[in-house]
What we know:
4 copies of one chain form a homotetramer. By secondary structure, chain A is an alpha+beta fold. Helices cover 15% and strands 40% of the residues of chain A. The first copy, chain A, has 2 helices and 8 strands; from the N terminus they run E-H-E-E-E-E-E-E-E-H. The first copy, chain A, has a 5-stranded antiparallel β-sheet with strand order 1-4-5-6-3, with helices on one face. In chain A, strands 2-7-8 form a 3-stranded antiparallel β-sheet, with no helix packed on it. The longest helix of chain A has 17 residues, at 24-40. Chain A is globular. Chain A starts with a strand and ends in an 8-residue tail after the last helix. The A-D interface holds A 17-20, 23-25, 27-28, 31, 46, 53, 55-63, 66, 68, 116, 118 and D 17-20, 23-25, 27-28, 31, 46, 53, 55-63, 66, 68, 116, 118. Strand 3 of chain A pairs antiparallel with strand 3 of chain D.
Amino acid sequence: MSEYRFTRRVQFYETDVAGIVHFSWFYRYMEEAEHALWREAGLSIHPHDSEIGWPRVSASFDFHRALRFEDEFDVWLRIAEMTSRRIRYACLLEQDHTRIASGAMTIACVRKRPDRKLEAIDIPAEIAARFEVHRT
Amino acid sequence: MSEYRFTRRVQFYETDVAGIVHFSWFYRYMEEAEHALWREAGLSIHPHDSEIGWPRVSASFDFHRALRFEDEFDVWLRIAEMTSRRIRYACLLEQDHTRIASGAMTIACVRKRPDRKLEAIDIPAEIAARFEVHRT
Amino acid sequence: MSEYRFTRRVQFYETDVAGIVHFSWFYRYMEEAEHALWREAGLSIHPHDSEIGWPRVSASFDFHRALRFEDEFDVWLRIAEMTSRRIRYACLLEQDHTRIASGAMTIACVRKRPDRKLEAIDIPAEIAARFEVHRT
Amino acid sequence: MSEYRFTRRVQFYETDVAGIVHFSWFYRYMEEAEHALWREAGLSIHPHDSEIGWPRVSASFDFHRALRFEDEFDVWLRIAEMTSRRIRYACLLEQDHTRIASGAMTIACVRKRPDRKLEAIDIPAEIAARFEVHRT
């Protein structure tokens, strides 16, 4: 798996008093695509009682156009880079083939220690084997 | 402890395209007051690694007036009833002494079992001792 | 139209540190079903520049079981009562035919006045004609 | 005005099943600081019936450490750059002088046209006069 696409509709509670989707929601849309990509790969990013986790290292969006209540839009997430410990995604939101927003997100593989600190570890081989960098 | 009051300002991300606070936020305002009440009582409602939890049994609001971006309002939470296993709160939101919304919420004490099922248990004595029903 | 059903998956950002869906989300699930019901009836509950609105008068949930990350569940919304000025919905959330939560919500038809006050009005005939009370 | 600092506590509904604040909330924390900065400058970023608006052009965060339920943390927002049409903020979240996250956000001044399109305009002089770039 190297990419995932889905279509989604803007919910009322995602809008704000300016009449458009609040920008914090775009990061959630990107994450929805990420988790769906993992399910497509036969994985859950957060299995119950797992010792490893995937905290976000960075996340960014450039916003080109607004989305409004009940708009339908497409989310396209692809794997832009994989290292031994991190995955970087690129994300594009479009509406009728018009660019709405372009995002990026990097996640790291960590082990949860008993003191609740997170220790960076290599991505387990059985997970790394399910993903590959998207060739454009 | 039998009650808690605080003042809060409406954040931009709590509003919706109708120009008012989305109704789902009122339940979060009520919960903010609950957790502050517990802190005032020297407790956390969710200590790290606790075996007991406090799921919501029911929650309701009657909405009288709208709140808008940057409005300041008061939240008043009080304990309306305590049984061996449950606490019922009543909540009033006001703005300049005008009633905005009236809520209620009941929580139950549960033990988290290894199979992730939740088992109703008596409220531990050291917690019950910190709270009492509010006399109006 | 008198009812609407849909299936939905729990998103990561809907969960909380207790490991379950935060209760405030159930009200949003209920609203998602409401707006989908209106779309099925050929309407939008919030058309651009409309002079009328549908504030929530009351909303409540009884919570029976928890939902967790990536759980799939069913939302069933039905119109329980219609008066000249209000609509009352009943809502049931189920997972594998097990009851998760039971909700209710009442909305009122209002006209937005220039002073931003909301004035209760009769539901326009062309809207009322699209809906009917659900016969169980 | 060139900067704003405030202290905030993590709310329960801001956490997720991984036990930490969901990353989407950091963008809201940054926005809370922005709107408080504007209030300190005697302005509202969204006055009722204003013809101008301030959509986000881009927003990013690097995440260094996790925040957990009831943690107190500091948000420091400063104006990093101002042009005739845009403001760029830098944001630092700290807990006990430990860096939690570093963010940036650029906003643009727009006029809302009757067709709902947003037209980039110069920042009104009376607004620009209230702010200045922060000297580190």
